[in-house]
Design a protein that fits this description.
The protein has two helices and nine strands. By secondary structure, the chain is α/β, with parallel strands linked by helices. The protein has a single domain, classed as Alpha-Beta Horseshoe (Leucine-rich repeat, LRR (right-handed beta-alpha superhelix)). A five-stranded mixed β-sheet has the order 2-3-5-7-9, with no helix packed on it. Strands 1-4 form a two-stranded antiparallel ribbon. It is globular, with a radius of gyration of 15 Å.
Amino acid sequence: LLKLKQSFLFSNAITTLASWQAGTDCCNWEGVGCSWSSGYVTTLDLSGFGLFSYGIDPVLFNLTSLKVLDLSMNNFGDQHYAIPSVGFERLALLTHLSLPNSRISGEIPIGISKLTNLISLDLSCRYGPFGVIRESHFQTLVANLNNLI
């Protein structure tokens, strides 16, 4: 998580993630939720923080116990930094993935179709096109994500 924090620029952010400090329990950090039984990070909710980053740092995909990931209303680099093509498939326990208005561009990764536990997926964007999805990828996405509500 600290490596992920290092990827953010905070000049226009609502928060600086001040609670994210080495030597402290990450389960008490802003936007972080943990399983009390295992201690693993299961929720990362950075929605609306106004964070800026040059793309989504691949270190995010090391959080393999995540069930909820919400990166909405942040700026991950506009059209110059595409959504990572690999990595989402490592988040196999995800039940909720929310990326609306996060200014991510590029093709929606096929790895999202491997997240068979997803019940909620939000890729919407009000501020221009979000991502491109090939028809074959869309068919795979829909076929594999049969738990979506």
